[in-house]
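Re: the 317-residue chain
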Amino acid sequence: MASPRLIHIGSAVVDFIYRLDRLPAPGDDLTASTFAALPGGGFNMMVSAKRSGMPTAYAGKIGDGLCGAMLAQAFRAEGIDCLQPASRGIDSGTCVVLVTEADAERTFISKPGAEGVITPDDYPFMQPEPGDWVFTSGYTLAYPGSRDSQAGFIAGLPAEAIFAFDPTGIVAEIPADILKSVLRRTDWLSLNRSEAAVIAGSGNDHELAARLLADHCPHAKGVVIRAGSAGALLALRAATPFFVPAFKVETVDTNGAGDSHVGAFIAALSQGQKPAGALRYANAAAAISTTRHGGSMAPTADEIKEFLTRAREENSA
């Protein structure tokens, strides 16, 4: 039997990354310390899953301009299949990423392109095979040109397909009916604390996770609430939630850390790891990614295993 694939039906864009002493105020004229143009968005998550050994395919849209060409080349280099032909007459989208030197935090400004236009004509390219995982983020569920069709495709996924969802920081811009529909079909939900609060209201992580499972994701197997440098909470149905602390590292760039976490977590689950072990594996992947500049800096499976071995040895010393 073939290994389960990850089929990403969301957005891949090109990131324009600027490192700054501080975020600009109105009328400012700042000089960046570094600049890079790199594949980003959903590409980062796919790279993480692929480097952790999961066969990965992109079923979203790529444009036919310079940004689309950059993405296509990057997918080929990573061994990630592109299931759709390039869209004609439109380029792929972009994201301006501002990374502040003091805390390594990132701010996004996105402009959708080809990936933000999804219609039922795209459905044949997105169809999973039994055992495959299907994933999207909140971006293509917020964009007017993609949200209705993508939500319809997700609602119609076959029961045997495993659907994972990360609503991302754009969650408040997803229409309520679309968000409700997608959450009802979600098998695994991964999000950060602020995103969880947008969906489930105020409360601590345990309360948010309980409401997400009971009120919003009635069929989900589990919810991961990521808490940045603190770690992540795992809530499984009919089980007591538990928190897995993050690993302490020298962080230089948090851009892509959430993507690295989600991709590694899904890959580990698809390979038979128990959810608790998969979460610790994902925490390690995210930690390593923050020690490198750029969003698509997810580590390989070997790097993660070496990191975890070293961490166990240090804890037992």
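DSSP finds eleven helices and 13 strands in the chain.
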